Amino acid sequence: MRQDHLISATQLSRADIEAVLDRAAEIDADPAAWGDAHGRAVLGLCFFEPSTRTKMSFDTAIKRLGGTTTDMGSVDSSSVKKGESLADTVRVVEGYADALVLRHPSEGAAKMAAEFVDVPVINAGDGAGQHPSQTLLDLYTIRENVGLDDLSIGIMGDLKYGRTVHSLAEALTNFDVRQHFISPESLRLPRGVRFDLHQSGAQVREHTELEGVLPDLDVLYVTRIQRERFPDENEYEKVAGEYQIDTKTLEAAADDLAVMHPLPRVDEIDPAVDGTDHATYFEQAHNGVPVRMALLDYLLSEEVDQ
Amino acid sequence: MRQDHLISATQLSRADIEAVLDRAAEIDADPAAWGDAHGRAVLGLCFFEPSTRTKMSFDTAIKRLGGTTTDMGSVDSSSVKKGESLADTVRVVEGYADALVLRHPSEGAAKMAAEFVDVPVINAGDGAGQHPSQTLLDLYTIRENVGLDDLSIGIMGDLKYGRTVHSLAEALTNFDVRQHFISPESLRLPRGVRFDLHQSGAQVREHTELEGVLPDLDVLYVTRIQRERFPDENEYEKVAGEYQIDTKTLEAAADDLAVMHPLPRVDEIDPAVDGTDHATYFEQAHNGVPVRMALLDYLLSEEVDQ
Amino acid sequence: MRQDHLISATQLSRADIEAVLDRAAEIDADPAAWGDAHGRAVLGLCFFEPSTRTKMSFDTAIKRLGGTTTDMGSVDSSSVKKGESLADTVRVVEGYADALVLRHPSEGAAKMAAEFVDVPVINAGDGAGQHPSQTLLDLYTIRENVGLDDLSIGIMGDLKYGRTVHSLAEALTNFDVRQHFISPESLRLPRGVRFDLHQSGAQVREHTELEGVLPDLDVLYVTRIQRERFPDENEYEKVAGEYQIDTKTLEAAADDLAVMHPLPRVDEIDPAVDGTDHATYFEQAHNGVPVRMALLDYLLSEEVDQ
C-alpha cells in the first residue's frame, strides 16, 4: 500500500485491496510459514471502546507473525480518566510500539491520531465513521466465497449508524458490484455516504423490504441494530426485531447465497441458520486473523523500509 | 487423556489423572526443558467472572511452554455486553486460538461451549459446578506432600457452593482415600454430589465439627465461605467466621498434616499458620503452573494428532 | 545494584543510578541486541491503581528483552475484590513470575510486599510515597539533555501529593544539583521530604512563583495537580489552573531549557509548547522503555546469580 496508516476504506485502491487479500490468501494457505515474519514487533492496542473480535484478532494476528502486543487497557484503568488528551496518549504509546490500533467513540479520531505519530495507525472504528480492517476481512470473505466481480450484495439492517457498512460500501465501488441497501426509513444510509457512492459511479439501490431483492443476491450482509448508537430508546425499540433472518426467509434465496454478519448478533439471524450452507459469519470472523496478519505485514514492512 | 475437552473431574480416570500428574512432576523437575514445547500456540482466555490465580496460572503456563494467550477481557469490555450468546462468543474465539479456557457463572456453560467448538475447551469454573484443573493441582499437591493412597482428608467450610470441593471429592474416589466433610448443616455437600460419591463407593463421612476428626487427618482442605454464592446476606453472616483455623486449632493435628486452601482466603486460616510446616496453600497455588502446563501439553498434543 | 528489590529512590546510590543509566544508554544505542537477553522471563504486573505509561512501558520493556508478562488485571476482576490481603496476592503471584511490578494506593505497600516474597519487587507507585523507576527515567532524560552535574532544576506544581517529585528530589541529592521547588503554599513539599533533603545536604530553595527563578533553570519539571489526591474538591479548584506553562511564559527561559512532565498532563503545559525545542516530555515518556529494560536486566540478572 502507498499509505503509512489505514484510516478509511476510501483510501484503498483496487490494487491496494487485492495486494492485502492476496497476501492473506498466502498466509491462510500456510500460516506456520509466517511465524517469524515480524518477530519482536510490538503492536500497541488503544481501545477506547469495548471490543472482542477486533481486538482479539489483531492480538492474535501480530502474535502469529512472531510479535506481541502492549495494551492500554480499558479507559477506566488508564490515564484517559485523569483527563489526558487523545493526542497525548497516542504520542506516548508510539514510544512503546511499532504500530498502533485505535478504536475511539469520536468520528475522525484515528485521522487526528495519525497526524501526531510517526508509527502506522490502524483505525479500528471511530464512532459512526470507518472500520477499514473489518472491510478488508469482509472483502476477503466475499472473494473466497462468491468472488468480487459481477456480484449482487444486499446490505441490511442499521445502515445509518453501522460503520462497517459505510466502509464496506465505499470499498465495493472498486469492483463490479450491484449494492442493494435494505433498511427502515429511519436507518437509511447517511446522505454523505450515499453522495460518495454516487460520485464513485456505484450501482446502488435502496429498499425497505428484503423480499423483492433476495432472490437476486449472491451475498446478504446483515448488521446488528446497535442500541448504543441510538440517542433515543424509543427509536431503537421501534426498529429492533425487524429485518430478522431465519431459515424460512432464506427459502427464497439462491442456493449459494452467503449470509454474512460482522457480529456480534443479537437476534438478527436465527441460530437455525448456523447449520445451513448459507452461514458464512463465523468463517468471516475467523478471517480476521489472516487478513489482519496481511495488513500488519504490509504496514510493518513499510515501516522497516523507511 | 482420551478426551478432547476437560469439562468435569468426573471424566478423569485414575490413569488420566496419573498421566497429567506424572507429566507435571517432569515439568517441575526441569521447567526450562519445556520452553519450546508448544511454541506459537495461542490459548484463548474467556473469563466471564473475576479470576486471579486461575487466569494468571494458565497465562503463565502456556507462556512457559513457548506459547501465548489472547484474552477476551472483562465482560464489560466485550461483545457480551452487546447481547452476544456464549455459543457465538466461543465460536468466534475458536478461530483465534488453539484451545479455550472458560470461566462462566452458569453451571453447564463449559459443557455447552464444548459442543459448539472443535478446539479443546478447559472448564475453569462454571458457577457452583466444576473446576477440574483446580482439582488436578490439588491432587498434585496432595501427592507431592503425603501421597494419594491410604489417605485421610478433611474438607471443610463451604461444601454447598464450593465448586473446587465438588471436583476434588469426585476425583478422590479414584484413590484409596477416606473423605471427611466438615461444615455447618446449611452448607453440607449437595445431595447430587453425595449421591455420586456413594455410587462410586467412596469412603465418606460428614461432620459438623472439626475437633473429633482432626487428629486422624493427613490433609485438611479449607475453603472460603463465598459471600457471592449466597442468595441471602443473613445466611452468610450466620456461618461466616465459623470453621476458622489458627495455630491453637492445629495443636491437636498430626505433625505432618498439610493444610490446603484453594485461595483466596479471607479469615478462614489465621496468618500465623503461614509460618508453620502445615501451611501448604501457597505451594498449592504455585503448583497451578506445572500442572496446567502438563494439562495444556496433553490437550494441545492431542490436537496436533487429529 | 546491591538490592534485590527497588522500593524507594532513597535506596539508590550514585553508583547504582549511574549503572542503570549507563545500561539504558547501551540499550538505547542498539535495542535489537537485547532481544534475547531475558528470553522466557515472566514479569508479574500487579496494578491496584490505574496506569497507562508505567504499566505499558514495563510491559514493553520485558517483551523487548525477550520475556513476557502476566497481568493481575484490574482490582475489580481479581481476588482482591473477594477480600484477599496484599500479602497473600503477592505470595501467589510470585509463584508465576520472575519479578513483580506493584502499584498500590497505600504508602508502604511495596516495602511490605517485598518482605513476603523472594522474587524482586519493583515499586511502581505506592500512594503519595515513591515511584523510583519513574525517577530513573527522569534522571536518564535529564542526563541525556543537559547533564546531571552543575544543574539547576525547577520542580513545579503539586509537590505535596506528587510521588514522582519526592522520588526525584531525593535521587538528585546524589548529584551536584540546585533544586528549586515552586508551588502554592498549600502544595509545598511535605515536611518529611524537606527534612530528608536537608539531611542529605541538598541545595534546596522554595518559591511560590516561577518568574524569578525561571531564567536560571536548565530543567523545568512540571507536575499535574492530581485531583484524585485531594481530600477536598474546593482545595483542588483553588489551585487548579495555576502554575501553567505556555510559550509566553517560556520567553524568559534559557534557550536550552528542557521542560519535563511525568504525564499525563491536563492543562499544566499548553500544547503550543509541544512544537518548541523545550518540550522534552514525550521523549521522557519514551525513555521509560530503555530505562526499565536496564532496570529489569539488573534485577533479573541478580536473580539468576542467587
From TrEMBL, chains A, B, C:
<dbReference type="InterPro" id="IPR006131">
    <property type="entry name" value="Asp_carbamoyltransf_Asp/Orn-bd"/>
</dbReference>
<keyword id="KW-0665">Pyrimidine biosynthesis</keyword>
<dbReference type="InterPro" id="IPR006132">
    <property type="entry name" value="Asp/Orn_carbamoyltranf_P-bd"/>
</dbReference>
<feature type="binding site">
    <location>
        <position position="54"/>
    </location>
    <ligand>
        <name>carbamoyl phosphate</name>
    </ligand>
</feature>
<dbReference type="GO" id="GO:0016597">
    <property type="term" value="F:amino acid binding"/>
</dbReference>
<dbReference type="InterPro" id="IPR002082">
    <property type="entry name" value="Asp_carbamoyltransf"/>
</dbReference>
<comment type="subunit">
    <text>Heterooligomer of catalytic and regulatory chains.</text>
</comment>
<dbReference type="GO" id="GO:0044205">
    <property type="term" value="P:'de novo' UMP biosynthetic process"/>
</dbReference>
<feature type="domain" description="Aspartate/ornithine carbamoyltransferase carbamoyl-P binding">
    <location>
        <begin position="5"/>
        <end position="144"/>
    </location>
</feature>
<feature type="binding site">
    <location>
        <position position="134"/>
    </location>
    <ligand>
        <name>carbamoyl phosphate</name>
    </ligand>
</feature>
<feature type="binding site">
    <location>
        <position position="263"/>
    </location>
    <ligand>
        <name>carbamoyl phosphate</name>
    </ligand>
</feature>
<feature type="domain" description="Aspartate/ornithine carbamoyltransferase Asp/Orn-binding">
    <location>
        <begin position="150"/>
        <end position="298"/>
    </location>
</feature>
<comment type="similarity">
    <text>Belongs to the aspartate/ornithine carbamoyltransferase superfamily. ATCase family.</text>
</comment>
<comment type="pathway">
    <text>Pyrimidine metabolism; UMP biosynthesis via de novo pathway; (S)-dihydroorotate from bicarbonate: step 2/3.</text>
</comment>
<feature type="binding site">
    <location>
        <position position="163"/>
    </location>
    <ligand>
        <name>L-aspartate</name>
    </ligand>
</feature>
<dbReference type="InterPro" id="IPR036901">
    <property type="entry name" value="Asp/Orn_carbamoylTrfase_sf"/>
</dbReference>
<feature type="binding site">
    <location>
        <position position="53"/>
    </location>
    <ligand>
        <name>carbamoyl phosphate</name>
    </ligand>
</feature>
<dbReference type="GO" id="GO:0004070">
    <property type="term" value="F:aspartate carbamoyltransferase activity"/>
</dbReference>
<feature type="binding site">
    <location>
        <position position="103"/>
    </location>
    <ligand>
        <name>carbamoyl phosphate</name>
    </ligand>
</feature>
<feature type="binding site">
    <location>
        <position position="82"/>
    </location>
    <ligand>
        <name>L-aspartate</name>
    </ligand>
</feature>
<dbReference type="GO" id="GO:0006207">
    <property type="term" value="P:'de novo' pyrimidine nucleobase biosynthetic process"/>
</dbReference>
<feature type="binding site">
    <location>
        <position position="224"/>
    </location>
    <ligand>
        <name>L-aspartate</name>
    </ligand>
</feature>
<dbReference type="InterPro" id="IPR006130">
    <property type="entry name" value="Asp/Orn_carbamoylTrfase"/>
</dbReference>
<dbReference type="Pfam" id="PF00185">
    <property type="entry name" value="OTCace"/>
</dbReference>
<feature type="binding site">
    <location>
        <position position="131"/>
    </location>
    <ligand>
        <name>carbamoyl phosphate</name>
    </ligand>
</feature>
<dbReference type="GO" id="GO:0006520">
    <property type="term" value="P:amino acid metabolic process"/>
</dbReference>
<feature type="binding site">
    <location>
        <position position="264"/>
    </location>
    <ligand>
        <name>carbamoyl phosphate</name>
    </ligand>
</feature>
<keyword id="KW-0808">Transferase</keyword>
<dbReference type="Pfam" id="PF02729">
    <property type="entry name" value="OTCace_N"/>
</dbReference>
<comment type="function">
    <text>Catalyzes the condensation of carbamoyl phosphate and aspartate to form carbamoyl aspartate and inorganic phosphate, the committed step in the de novo pyrimidine nucleotide biosynthesis pathway.</text>
</comment>
<protein>
    <recommendedName>
        <fullName>Aspartate carbamoyltransferase</fullName>
        <ecNumber>2.1.3.2</ecNumber>
    </recommendedName>
</protein>
